[in-house]
């Protein structure tokens, strides 16, 4: 009887101890809640030329509380306004001391101001591939002369009607001509559309756009950052970003994709902005070497 009472008392004591330890988490600090509220609200300064509203991207992060099994969700708005970019800078400066130094030494803030429709942006990306900027712009200007209305006339139906011979006459290679026709064909067949692209997740964009001939993961990453203004893109295959990460963290060798993901995890949900500063870091290093 005594043993039974003792065991019961121990069990009750354990239950009381667990109840005292596992308490509901306290409400978030008011300043943090304010920032989260501001991040989650859509920007009202989006370019008027955007036909479809960009949706904030939800980024899941693991809670630091070992007793809290639910993931914390941070919502980052597209990089369409100065206030959104400023929020990204605040996050990066607080989460990465080394990156904070880079940000402090660069006066001009990041700019992600392209407002071209997705089809035009992808077309331009194909035309600019593996060409010096000056040569690419020359060909692009000739390309636009083939359409009534310039850039506004670059539509899938119009592009697919221009023959490869006509494209080669303005300096577009036969291979790129086939890429452009493949992109236009996927639009006219309904496989892709600007509306679909704007609604796709980052993962869906990579899966669907790399089906187009001539478009690889790197091109999709650049498209997501500079055309769609996605805030949390890490172009692990970009040489400039890899060199920047190597210099920033004092690595002996260029980091591979997995190491890039691990090192830049702290930048979430603004890895696009962190990548932008890696390009600036490398540019600054090149300038010093040329002097």
From TrEMBL:
Q: What is this protein called?
A: HhH-GPD domain-containing protein
Family under the similarity heading: Belongs to the alkylbase DNA glycosidase AlkA family.
Spell out the Pfam families in the cross-references. Answer: HhH-GPD
UniProt xrefs under SMART domains = ENDO3c (SM00478)
Q: Which SUPFAM superfamilies match?
A: DNA-glycosylase (SSF48150)
Enumerate the InterPro entries for this protein. Alkylbase_DNA_Glycosylase/TA, DNA_glycosylase, HhH-GPD_domain
Q: Which domain of life is it from?
A: Eukaryota
Q: What UniProt keywords are attached to this protein's entry?
A: DNA damage, DNA repair
GO terms, molecular function = alkylated DNA binding; DNA-3-methyladenine glycosylase activity; DNA-7-methylguanine glycosylase activity
Residue ranges annotated as transmembrane are none
PANTHER family membership: DNA-3-METHYLADENINE GLYCOSYLASE, HHH-GPD DOMAIN-CONTAINING PROTEIN
Residue stretches making up the HhH-GPD domain:
127-283
GO cellular component terms attached to this protein's record: nucleus; protein-DNA complex
Q: Name one GO biological process term.
A: DNA alkylation repair
């Amino acid at each position: 009887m005594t043993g039974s009472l003792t065991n019961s008392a121990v069990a009750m004591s354990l239950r009381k101890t667990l109840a005292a330890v596992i308490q509901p988490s306290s409400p978030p600090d008011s300043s943090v809640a304010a920032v989260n509220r501001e991040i989650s609200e859509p920007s009202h300064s989006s370019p008027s030329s955007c036909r479809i509203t960009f949706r904030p991207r939800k980024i899941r992060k693991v809670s630091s509380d070992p007793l809290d099994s639910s993931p914390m969700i941070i919502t980052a708005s597209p990089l369409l306004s100065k206030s959104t970019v400023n929020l990204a800078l605040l996050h990066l400066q607080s989460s990465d001391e080394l990156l904070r130094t880079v940000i402090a030494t660069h006066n001009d803030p990041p700019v992600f101001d392209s407002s071209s429709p997705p089809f035009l942006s992808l077309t331009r990306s194909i035309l600019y591939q593996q060409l010096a900027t000056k040569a690419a712009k020359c060909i692009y200007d000739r390309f636009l002369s083939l359409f009534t209305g310039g850039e506004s006339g670059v539509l899938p139906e119009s592009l697919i009607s221009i023959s490869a011979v006509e494209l080669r006459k303005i300096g577009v290679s036969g291979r790129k001509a086939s890429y452009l026709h493949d992109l236009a064909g996927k639009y006219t067949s309904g496989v892709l559309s600007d509306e679909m692209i704007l609604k796709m997740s980052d993962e869906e964009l990579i899966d669907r756009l790399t089906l187009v001939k001539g478009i690889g993961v790197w091109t999709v990453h650049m498209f997501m950052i500079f055309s769609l203004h996605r805030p949390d893109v890490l172009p692990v295959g970009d040489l400039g970003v890899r060199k920047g990460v190597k210099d920033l963290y004092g690595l002996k060798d260029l980091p591979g994709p997995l190491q890039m993901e691990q090192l830049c995890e702290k930048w979430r949900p603004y890895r696009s902005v962190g990548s932008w500063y890696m390009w600036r870091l490398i540019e600054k290093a090149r300038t010093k070497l040329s002097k």
